[in-house]
């Protein structure tokens, strides 16, 4: 009879430990990472000083989208691109929409598009030395495919400044990562907090 309190305590501790491991496994299985977005190619013929005709207001842009999730596909809604002539977004130069699509796990996708920008703003954005700096924003919503079901939509809003040289190309050969103002660390902390709360409620109910 004297061993009963200790046995009950060990049973409770074992239950809590098992429940914690189960919760951790579920979190690792259901955790999702947003796709990573890059600008691989950015070219404005109208800013190329080596060309005779500088009235071309077309932008050629290539995006690269990477799904780093090991076992989760991604459904993209329509991807909306917005272009500004300065980093402070003082003037809207143009918009473009890429149709939604599905991307498998650990897959990469590229989209090469041509966008017509406002000609007057394009000339005004150019510095005396022929260079310019633009702002590119990307907005969409994604759903993650986990086995046979899909998650709810998660908003994805990222962007970056793009420096262009006097040949109309981005100043650096390296691809440009589009970043979000939201912290990934905060998102993961929120997920963990929600999971821990659920575990506590289950335990109290038990």
UniProtKB/TrEMBL annotation:
Q: Which Gene Ontology cellular-component terms appear in the entry? A: plasma membrane; plasmodesma
Membrane spanning residue stretches: 12-30
What lineage is on file? Eukaryota, Viridiplantae, Streptophyta, Embryophyta, Tracheophyta
BP GO annotations: defense response to other organism
Task: State the compartments where it is located.
Answer: Membrane
Output the superkingdom of the source species.
Eukaryota
The yes or no answer to whether the keyword Ribonucleoprotein is present is no
Name the InterPro entries on file: NDR1-like
The keyword Transmembrane appears for this protein = yes
User: What's the protein here called?
Assistant: Protein NDR1-like
Keywords attached to this Swiss-Prot or TrEMBL record, sorted alphabetically, are: Membrane, Transmembrane, Transmembrane helix
């Amino acid at each position: 009879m004297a061993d009963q309190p200790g046995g009950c305590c060990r049973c409770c501790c074992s239950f809590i430990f098992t429940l914690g491991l189960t919760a951790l496994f579920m979190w690792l299985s259901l955790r999702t990472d947003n796709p990573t977005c890059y600008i691989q190619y950015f070219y404005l013929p109208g800013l190329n000083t080596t060309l005779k005709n500088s009235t071309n207001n077309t932008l050629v842009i290539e995006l690269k989208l990477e799904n780093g999730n090991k076992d989760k596909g991604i459904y993209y809604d329509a991807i909306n691109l917005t272009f500004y002539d300065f980093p402070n977004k003082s003037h809207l130069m143009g918009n473009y929409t890429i149709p939604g699509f599905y991307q498998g796990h650990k897959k990469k996708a590229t989209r090469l598009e041509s966008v017509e920008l406002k000609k007057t703003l394009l000339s005004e954005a150019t510095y005396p030395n022929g260079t310019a700096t633009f702002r590119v924003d990307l907005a969409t919503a994604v759903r993650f495919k986990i086995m046979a079901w899909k998650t709810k939509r998660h908003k994805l809003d990222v962007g970056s400044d793009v420096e262009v040289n006097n040949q109309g190309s981005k100043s650096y050969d390296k691809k440009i990562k589009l970043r979000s103002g939201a912290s990934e660390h905060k998102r993961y902390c929120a997920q963990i907090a929600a999971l821990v709360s659920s575990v506590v409620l289950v335990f109290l109910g038990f």
